[in-house]
Amino acid sequence: MSVTGIIFSNIHDNNLPELTRQRTMASVPYGCRYRFIDFTLSNMVNSGVTSVGIITQTNYQSLVDHIGTGKDWDLASRSGGIKLISPNITAFAQGSRRANVETRLESLKSATDYISKRKEELVVLSDCDVICNVDFSDMISYHEKSGADITVAVKKTTLTPETAAKNVIMKSENGRVRDLLVYPRDISGDYDISLNIMVISREKLLDIIADAAAHGYTSFNTDVLLKNINSYVIMSYAYEGYFACVSSLSEYFACNMDLLQPGVRHALLEAKNRPVYTKVRNSPPARYTEGSFVKNSLLADGCVISGRVENSILFRGVTVEEGAVIKNSIIMQDSYICKDTQLNCVILDKNVVIKDGRCLSAHESIPFYVPKNSII
To answer: Which domain does 345 fall in, by range?
Structure first.
């Protein structure tokens, strides 16, 4: 069957207010050269989904700059290709801008016109901040063979009461979802959690959107899945690979640090026949001057290293001067670390300058964040 994709770029912006003040969740930098949306887009392209709509609401200039024409994902096409769906393009969304940003179902209402004009039979829905390398074609095949109305990707995860309150738990029997626990409290143990990736027929999705508009529904999990748990055939698709979904600054720090583990890096970025694509920039290779030292770190092109870097992730164009020591930190694009600076468990946004002799230190559970264009 033919398939189109829908990606939600804004609905989780409130989870990372530090990094989303001037950008969407979709365009948050990750892993020294990527943005969050690169993983979802690459999963779709690698699975043969060549028509993708990205629902935007606010702060999407950086996303527009990153996506461009879509050529870096081979989505620069007149038929299909990639399209940014701007906010409030239908009457459904008028006067409800705040709700549009916060819920998946309200975002779909604003994309009704786009969805209704597509010709594909199936739709893959995905959040932008799902960090995984999944084969959608296998999930789509499972959806077709099972005869499901909706198929939801899940992963078996060990939950604490704190992490359970951030997830939707799917309880299944022989693959069919029989119950949902939406952001439950006081639950711990091994459960299947939703990855916020779904496959559904385009006609079924349009019916759901129309029904939601008529009844004032706003939550896809509560008002659609849970209320129709017995009338819809909702199947769960088990995903076994690496997965991370960021809901706080400490989780953002942790999932970046995960990439320093060879097993995670191989599973996520080096999977056979499933590369992760991103915007290509023409920058010189990283340069290491005499006396520099780098250990267990990821460095992008354009970096100039004269100091010491350990267990850290450096984005494009970062300069580390002589005598500077960076440990357990994330340094974003074009930041400049001057002489004799010491950084530990720090996240520097783009174009930050840390002057000579400064010392910034925190703990991995509460990393110290420095906003874009700051000078310290």
So the answer is: 287-370
Q: Which pLDDT score is estimated for 102?
A: 66
Counted domains in the chain: 2
How many helices and strands (H and E) does the chain possess? 10, 28
- pLDDT tens digits for 53-74? 999 988 889 999 999 999 999 9
Backbone angles phi, psi at 34, to 5 degrees: -105, 170
Residue-wise pLDDT for 34-54, tens only, equals 999 999 999 999 999 999 999
Gap between the Cα atoms of 353 and 351, Å rounded? 7
Please check whether residue 281 lies inside any domain of the structure.
Answer: no
Give every residue of the chain whose pLDDT is below 70, as ranges.
Answer: 87-102
Q: Measured over all CA atoms, what is the biggest interatomic distance in the chain, rounded to whole angstroms? A: 68
Q: Give whole-number Cα distances, 85 to 10, 56, 94, 103, 333, in Å.
A: 12, 6, 15, 16, 27
Instruction: Give the span between the Cα atoms of 83 and 111, in whole angstroms.
Output: 11
Q: Which of 223, 197, 208, 205 is nearest to 142 (CA)?
A: 197
Half-sphere exposure of 120 (CA within 13 A, CB side): 25
In this structure, the number of other CB atoms found within 10 A of the CB of residue 194 comes to 22
Scored b (16 or more CB within 10 A) or e, 158-181 reads ebeeeebeebbbbebeeeebeebb
**Could you tell me if 202 and 122 are in contact, meaning their C-beta atoms sit under 8 angstroms apart?**
yes
Q: Is residue 375 part of a domain?
A: no
Query: Helix, strand or coil for residue 317?
Result: coil
For residues 158 and 35, state if they share a domain. yes
Classify residue 351 as left (phi > 0), alpha (psi -120 to 50) or beta: left
Give me the pLDDT at residue 77, please.
80
Query: Cα dihedral sign for 179, 147, 219, 5?
Result: positive
CA 159 – CA 148 distance, rounded (Å): 27
pLDDT 10s digits, 145-174 = 999 999 999 999 999 999 999 999 999 999
